[in-house]
Design brief:
50% helix; 4-stranded mixed sheet; 494 residues; 10 strands
């Protein structure tokens, strides 16, 4: 049985993952990873730039997408209730889940009620977030990922490293080896003469998955959007596997984050322009599936269940600054332009949400009590490329600074960190011109004693790390005030 991502623990933290700086340092030493990342992100960036450049009103579309999302978040309770009423009227059953445990329990109970021992899945960040595959495995239910990249990750007993392209860290040769080694253990084996040609790899995946599609009684999906006005859901994808999962099984279960709501069907028009251009660099997605309730005519699911997932999203919503992260439509544009992500990959972030958006979303959803989560707001150079690329104009650099402040404030407590003590001392000194002058004059004593040295070398104690990377200058033999007084006033500069 393949459970999905074996390194993920029940708390939502990647078990054994170090804080970002340590994980990033290790990733930087992997030249194959860096080569794969650079190639993939540069290709996606180029395609995105081309299709975005075709639109004279791109910035207006970004403004519109931002405004729609902001309006939705301001009145989220109203639109959620409207969605539930319209989805129920269409024949769907709506379930509310406060957290991952409740959502997983609901899905497991629904699969058991359908009499199924396996499910086929559409790629879904929400189900990865709540570790649904692991919960299903614990209940004796096989969950098969059907997106090509997710299949690669699952068969490789790996975990995703990119929102759009989860297997971006793998090259074609690695994928071929994974298929040859693992497919035969869980279904139709890969052809013995399989090469690393993309067409042959896709064919092997298609044949392997077909038997699972045809026998599955239950399909599980997420949703890119949920329309309050109609009670319908929308999934956009590029391979057709989503269409198979959404139409072939008798029971369809969709796990949807509450922030995925859009007020009206007309609002969808804006997002179907900005999402594909920002994510895959396409003018439109090859497959856009919309459904509202069960089919009713035998051509599609006979039962439709929608699990509306909170899992701390209302906590994020309560933060007037942090809530803008809930505008995210999971396009991954910020990852593809981020100089940090391009060099260290997604695993360094210790979360199913990597890159710049993960650095601001994950600490809000999980809190900053762990070393991994507390380090994420610092996983950025604050260059601002992520904001420029974001189709819904999330001010990610501002959120990173906001969360850095939170991390520092939460770490203070009764015993402040040495950094906090040093900052408090500096604030006291700079708060008085007399104290500042006295400190400067004291420093000149050291300068006179050490004036024959070029620099101080490596400093002891807390300053050791700082001085290891740069020269520490010898203090001046006189302050600017003393020099000015000597040259102009004839005094001693007090």
């Amino acid at each position: 049985m393949i459970t999905g991502h074996p390194h993920v623990g029940v708390t939502g933290t990647f078990v054994g993952m170090p804080a970002f700086p340590a994980a990033a340092r290790e990733a930087l030493g992997d030249t194959t990873l860096r080569r794969n990342l650079k190639h993939a992100t540069s290709v996606i960036r180029g395609k995105r730039a081309s299709v975005v450049g075709e639109l004279d009103d791109w910035e207006q579309l970004r403004d519109a997408a931002e405004a729609i999302k902001n309006r939705t978040l301001r009145h989220l309770d109203h639109y959620l209730e409207q969605f539930e009423a319209n989805a129920t009227a269409a024949g769907a059953v709506v379930h509310w889940a406060r957290d991952a445990e409740e959502a997983n329990r609901t899905v497991v109970d629904l699969v058991r009620a359908a009499g199924a021992e396996e499910v086929v899945k559409v790629k879904s960040m929400a189900t990865q977030e709540i570790e649904l595959n692991e919960a299903l495995a614990a209940a004796g239910i096989d969950a098969w990922e059907t997106d090509l990249a997710e299949l690669i990750v699952q068969l490789g007993e790996d975990w995703p490293s990119h929102i759009l392209v989860p297997a971006i860290h793998r090259n074609r040769t690695e994928v071929r080896d994974i298929f040859l080694r693992r497919m035969k253990e869980v279904g139709r084996p890969a052809p013995g003469d399989l090469t690393d040609e993309p067409a042959r790899l896709a064919e092997a995946a298609r044949l392997h998955l077909r038997e699972k599609f045809l026998r599955a009684e239950v399909g599980i999906s997420g949703a890119n959007f949920a329309i309050a006005e109609t009670g319908g859901l929308v999934v956009v994808e590029s391979e057709g596997n989503g269409r198979m999962c959404l139409t072939l099984p008798k029971t369809l279960i969709s796990v949807v984050g509450i922030e995925k709501i859009l007020p009206t069907f007309d609002d969808l028009e804006v997002f179907l322009q900005v999402l594909p251009r920002s994510s895959t660099g396409e003018r439109e997605n090859p497959y856009t599936s919309l459904w509202t309730g069960p089919a009713g005519d035998g051509d599609g699911p006979e039962a439709v269940h929608i699990v509306l997932l909170d899992n701390h999203r209302t906590d994020v919503l309560a933060d007037e600054v942090g809530r803008s992260a809930l505008r995210c439509i999971r396009c991954s544009a910020c990852l593809n332009v981020c100089p940090v992500y391009e060099r260290v990959g997604g695993h360094s972030y210790g979360s199913v949400y990597p890159g710049p958006i993960g650095a601001v979303l994950t600490p809000q959803l999980r809190g900053t009590s762990s070393a991994v989560d507390a380090s994420l707001p610092y996983a950025s150079t604050l260059c601002g490329a992520c904001f420029d690329a974001c189709p819904v104009k999330i001010p990610i650099p501002d959120l990173l600074v906001h969360l850095r402040t939170r991390v520092v404030d939460e770490a203070r407590g009764d015993v402040p960190k040495p950094e906090a003590v040093a900052m408090k001392g500096a604030a006291w000194m700079f708060g008085s011109s007399g104290r500042l002058g006295a400190a400067q004059r004291a420093a000149t004593l050291g300068g006179r004693v050490l004036r024959n040295r070029e620099n101080l070398g490596r400093l002891p104690g807390p300053m050791r790390g700082w001085s290891a990377e740069r020269d520490t200058p010898v203090p001046p033999t006189e302050t600017f005030r003393q020099w000015w007084a000597r040259e102009h006033d004839g005094g001693d500069g007090r």
